[in-house]
Amino acid sequence: MIQNGATFVIVDKTTNPRDGNPALLIQDDGGGMGPEAMRSCMSFGFSNKKSKSAIGQYGNGFKTSSMRLGADVIVFSRHLDNGKFTQSTGLLSYTFLRQTGHDRIVVPMVDYEFNTSSNTLEPLHRYGKKHFTSNLSILLRWSPYSTEQELLEQFDDIGYRGTKVVIYNLWFSDNGNVELDFDSDPEDIRMNGDIKEVITHPFWKTINEQHIANQFRNSLRVYLSILYLRIPENFNIILRGKVIEHHNIANDLKFPEFILYRPHSGGLMEGTCVTTIGFIKEAPQVNIHGFNVYHRNRLILPFWQVVNYSRNRGRGVVGVLEANFIEPTHDKQDFERTSLFLKLEGRLKEMTLEYWDYHCQLIGYYAKEKSQKAVSMHSSYGSPHITVEKPIVLNQSSPALCNINATPPGGAFQHPAATASHCLAGTPGEPITDSQSRSCLGAHMKRTEHDHPEEPEKKRHAGVKAMATKTHDEETQKPVDIFANHSKDQETMTLMQKNKKLHAECLEYEKREKELTLKMIQLQNELKEVHDEQARLLAELQHLDAIKE
C-alpha cells in the first residue's frame, strides 16, 4: 500500500445495498492494479515478494484475512500504465462457491479500458466476449450490486488511481451478533464477544483494562496505531472519518536500554536487530510484559510473552524490535518456527530476566543476592542467582525520575544506566539498607557474546560506595547525600513536567496537521469531481455539436 504510492487508506462501515446489512470498506489512493495484477491478487497461491522492504504482495494474506472477516469480498481497482487507463472488478465469494456446488475456486473478474479517442469506457474482452459476459452475470448475481451501472459507479470516488475493497456477509459470533461491532464507538470498529478479564489488584483494574496491551485485541483503532513501526509523514490511516494517531511503544518505556543482537547460524551472521527494552511507564501497576516484534516495519507479534514469570520476576518489562532475519507466516500473525526464531526467543527471555534482576528496584521491588560473588561478564545462558522479594513501598510523590525517549533502530546507542538516586528509592527519612545499596552495584554488567559490548561502569553518584565494608564516616555521610539527591530529583521533576507540557503542545500541533491533511485530501477529491463533471459536460457539448453538424 505505502510502497505503491498511497497517501491514505480509509477503513469504514458501509452498507450492502442488496440486503441493507453492514459491510466493511477499505480504500486507498495507491497505484491500483491492472488486469493481470488483479488476477494475481485474487488468485490463491500466487506470490510476487520481490522487494526486501515489502511485507507481502499478492500472496495468501489478502484472501485469508478478508475471508476471516466475511464470507464474500469484492475488489475494485483503477490503474494507469504507459498511457493505458484500466479499471478491474473481481469477486471472491464463499457464498457463491458453496451454493453453486463448485469443487474448485472460481474468481470472476471483468476489466474495462478507457478509449481516449472516443472518451468512453469499453469492456476488455481478454478471453473473449462470452467469457466477459459470463463473469459479469456472476458478479451481478452474487455481489452487492445488481446492475453493471451500479458496479461502474463504485469507481466514482476512487479517483484516477486506487483500490476499493468491500467485505460483506460478515461473520457472526456465538452470541448471534456480527463479529465486528460498529455501534459501540462511532470512531472505532471493535470486536464483539466476551472480553478477557484482567486479573489484578482492584485499585489497578481500570488502568490495566484500558492499557494498549489489553485493548489492541478488541479495538481496531488501537491496533492500527501500533501496526507500523514507522509511518511516512504524507501517509494517513483514516478510520471512520478520523485519522489514526501513530503510537510508538518504545516511547512508553522508562529506564530504556538498547541491545544489539546478532544471530548466527552455521558460523555465519544471519542479521542484526536492536532491541529497545525497559519498564512500561505504568509499571508496576500494570500486569503487562512482552516484546513487540516487527518485520519490515509491520507488527507481527504484539506483546509477545517470552517468560512465564513467578513472584513478579519480569513484570512490566516490555521491548520493541524489528526482526527482518526471520520470516512471518502467511497471515502475518506469527513467525515460522525456524532455528533462528527459537534462538531469538531464547535471547529475549534472557534479556527480560536480566533486565528485571538489575532494575526491578526502580519500580519498587528489590532483589536479594544468594551469593556475594561478583556476576561474571561472560556468564552462561540464563540469569544471575537472584531471588525477587516483596516490593518496597515507595512514596507516591516520588515517581520514577528517568524517562529517556528511545532512539529508533539504527540511531546512536545510548546506555541510560540508573543513577544511585534511582536505585535508592525508598521511604523518605529512612536509612538505606546494605542490601539495597549492594543491589545497584551489579547493574549493566552481564551481556552475552551476541550483544553489543557495554561500556565500563561509570562513576556512581555520591551516596553509593562500592565497598563491602563501610566506615563510620560513610554511614554518617549517607543522609546528607540523600537530601542532596532529593533536591536534584525535585529539579528533575520540574524539568520533566515542562517537557511533558511541551510534548503535549507538539502532539496538539501534529493532530491539527493531520486534520488539515485530511481536509486537503477531501478538497482534492472534491476538485477532482468538479474536473470530472467538467470533462463530462465538455464531452456532451462536443457530442451535441457533432449532432448539429
Kindly describe this structure:
The chain starts with 7 loop residues before the first strand and ends with a helix. The protein has helices at 35-42, 61-69, 94-100, 129-142, 148-153, 205-209, 212-215, 220-226, 339-359, 420-423, 434-438, 472-548; strands at residues 8-15, 22-28, 70-81, 84-93, 109-115, 120-123, 162-170, 180-181, 190-191, 236-239, 242-243, 253-261, 264-265, 268-269, 273-280, 290-295, 298-304, 317-322, 367-369, 386-388. The protein is built from twelve helices and 20 strands. It is α+β, with helices and mostly antiparallel strands and 549 residues long. The strands form five sheets. It has a nine-stranded mixed beta sheet with strand order 6-5-4-3-7-2-1-10-11, with helices on both faces. Strands 12-15-18-16-17 form a five-stranded mixed beta sheet, covered by helices on one side. Strand 5 and strand 6 (120-123) form a beta hairpin. Residues 46-59, 370-450 and 452-483 have low confidence and may be disordered. The longest helix is centred in the last third of the chain and has 77 residues, at 472-548.
* Class from secondary-structure proportions: alpha+beta
Number of strands: 20
Query: How many helices?
Result: 12
Uncertain spans: 46-59, 370-450, 452-483
Task: Describe the largest sheet.
Answer: 9 strands, mixed
Q: Which word captures the global form?
A: elongated
Mean pLDDT: 78
Percent in helix = 25-40%
Biggest sheet strand line-up: 6-5-4-3-7-2-1-10-11
- Report the C-alpha radius of gyration, rounded: 29 Å
N-to-C CA distance = 48 Å
- Beta-strand residue percentage: 15-25%
